[in-house]
Amino acid sequence: MPSPYFFLFELIIYIQFALCLSHALKHGTQNLLKLGFGILFGVMLELATIRQLNAYEYGQFFIMVLDVPLCIGVAWSCIIYSAMEFSDATNLPYFPRPLLDGLLGLNIDLALDAVAIRFGFWDWGQGLEFQYFGVPYVNFWAWFWVVFSFSLGYRLLARSSGWAGKWLSAPLAFLAGLTGVLGTNAFIAFVVPDEIRNILIAVTLAAALVIVFLLRPKFYQKPVAPLAFWVPFLTHAYVLIAGVISGVILDPTFLLVMGLVMLAVSLALHWKTVKPIAISN
């Protein structure tokens, strides 16, 4: 039977989903489809990636879809949905916004992944000393492209008036997301030579960050739903609190430092949306 840490992790994800669903219900069919196809995308990308790369496996959560926890697909959808809600309220040009979305996803994973493997949520099979404290560097490459690919695919039609924008944006995001994820997985794993793989990962992620900075984004150009704060905050809070109670975030203590830094970054970006949790806009 899964430990209480598994249950609480799933519970937090479903709370995040309730917040996103409440927002989507109040903002039309297009948002509901984005959230729904986001879940399908999250589950399918995990099923496909496990079989494509054979690089990791999940622990036993309460609700599984074959060998993938349903909550992981839901989490991907919530991360993407909340990141796009935030980036759409900036003055960034429309198509560079997926760069910011991908970086917002990394803000979560830099705190989460190394702690999650210590809880047994998933296992990279490389031990806890490998690369980023047991997490392959390529994982951060994958996180960026997961969020970026879905966000970009959705935006291709989202601004179109009429039925195409309303009904086809989410299915296109699903297809573009899977293509982007599996394509970038194959490229980094099977094409890029081992000796330059980590350099390419670092350069790619740094380039995305530099581009966003050079575009000098102004945030909160329109109201942002509180879910943009609560989705990342609940994950960061779980990582820190559960990590300290269990002690796993203290071995090494750098994980605690990284968790606090990523929480601080998230708070700096999202503090203007802070409101008590409520199933509301």
Keywords:
single chain; 281 residues; mainly alpha; two-stranded antiparallel ribbon; two-stranded antiparallel sheet; 9 helices
Provide structural commentary:
With 281 residues, the protein is mostly helical. It has one domain (4-273). Helix content is 70%, strand content 3%. It contains nine helices and four strands. The protein has helices spanning 4-26, 29-53, 70-87, 97-119, 138-158, 163-191, 194-214, 227-246, 254-270; strands at 57-58, 64-65, 68-69, 122-123. Strands 1-4 form a two-stranded antiparallel sheet. A hairpin with a 2-residue loop joins strand 2 (64-65) and strand 3. Helix 2 (29-53) runs antiparallel to helix 5, helix 2 runs parallel beside helix 6 and helix 8 (227-246) packs antiparallel against helix 9 (254-270). It is globular and about 50 Å long. It starts with a helix and ends in an 11-residue tail after the last helix. The model has no long low-confidence stretch (mean pLDDT 95).
